[in-house]
What we know:
Layout: H1 2-33, E1 37-39, H2 47-55, H3 68-81, E2 84-86, E3 94-97, E4 101-105, E5 109-119, E6 122-131, E7 134-143, E8 146-150, H4 152-156, H5 159-162, H6 170-178, E9 183-186, E10 192-197, E11 213-218, E12 225-231
Antiparallel strand pairs: 1-2, 3-4, 4-5, 5-6, 6-7, 7-8, 9-10, 10-11, 11-12
Helix pairs in contact: 2-3
Amino acid sequence: MKHLFYLCAFIAFAFIACNGGNSYKGSNQSDNNTTPDTVRLDAVKNRDMLIILSILPDSITKTFPWTREQRRNLRAQLDSQKYYLDSAHHFSQLKKFENNHIEFGSKDNSFSMTAYQIRDGHYVILAKDEIEGKQTINAYELYKNSAENMPLNEILGKYNYMFLKDASSQSCLGMFYEKNPIFDFDIADPSIVIIKLKNYSESDSKDCIKGNELSLRFNVRTHPFDVAGIKWSD
C-alpha cells in the first residue's frame, strides 16, 4: 500500500510539472509576438527621407497609423544607435526605403511616398494610399521644418483637363461630368508621375480625349511638373 501511495504521488507530480511546463512555453510564445522588430537602415544614405518623415504630419497615410512622433523616434534611434526597435511592426510590410522614395504594402493595402527636391530643405511630396483597390493621393510642400498640405492641382497642375483635346469644349467637359473620370497614379519613378485615366477607352472618347496615360516630368525650374507626353495604352 505504501509503494502504491508513492507511485500515485509521483504520477501526480509529473502531471503537474508537465502542465506547468506547457503553460510557461505558451507564455513565452505570447511574449515573442510583442517583441519589437529590429530595423537597420543607413541613416547617412537615407538622411533626407528620415528628415522629411520626421516633419510630415500624422495624416500622411491611412493605410496604417504612423504618427510623426513614431517617425521622429525612427530618425533619433537610427542616428544614435544605428537601428530602430519597431514595436508597431510597421516595417514588416516594408518593400522599399530610399532617400527619395518609400513603399510599404500588404496583399490588400499599400502606402508609397516620393519626395521631389526643389532645393536644399525645400520639397514637394506626393503620398499615395491604396486601400482595397481605392487610391487616395495627398500632396505636401515641405520647407525647412514645416510642411503644408497642398491641393493636388497646385502641385501637378489641372491634370484632368490635360487629357482633353479642347478643355474649353462644353460637350467634352459635359462628357467628363456625365462619366466622372477615375485616375490611377504611379509615383514610383523619382522624376516622372504617370496618371492613367482608367474608365475611358479610345473607342468611347468621343474624339475629346488625347489618350489615357499622362506623363508629368518633374522640373525644378517650373511649377514643378511639365507635361512629358500623353498616349493611349492598354
